[in-house]
Amino acid sequence: MNRNIGIFCASSNRLEPVFYEEAKRLGEWIGRQGRTLVYGGANCGLMETLARSVHESGGRVLGVVPQILVDNDRVSGFIDEMVLTPDLNQRKQGIIDRSDIIIAMPGSVGTLDEVFTVLAANTIGIHSKRVLFWNIDGFWDELFQMFRGLERRNVINKPLSDYVLVANAFDEVIRLVE
Length: 178
Known about the structure:
The protein is of the alpha/beta class. It has helices at 17-32, 45-56, 67-71, 88-98, 109-123, 141-152, 170-177, and strands at 4-8, 36-39, 60-66, 81-85, 101-104, 131-134, 164-167.
């Protein structure tokens, strides 16, 4: 069972409302199931929405926090356990190491960096963790188009379906996590 759910997502407070609504919904589900959110620990954007909703719904929140967030007073107040890291690379690796599955919610270059690290490590056998892309409102459609192009050009040695999962609706996310 996927008890520790790693989530990579946006820290922006300027996203479309549907992204926050779905983050809250997922956080509530994680909390009600008594599972653990493993995430980057910031007090903004989808990250804070997730942490708050997990915490308020009875789940556990594990924040893997880079020192720069501490220095800039950007750490969430909803963290039950904090793992402090010196930089973003160790934060990313800490989330990966402590997660049973990774969910990629809408995010920017940091989220892309994080999920590509998981995917690359899977392709060469470092681990067998999969990334579940939650394609809220078609957010990841262009990325999937690029993936299909990579497969068509035979630059991917392992079928993406071995380590990439896609959910277009909340119910699909739950089914794939369970």
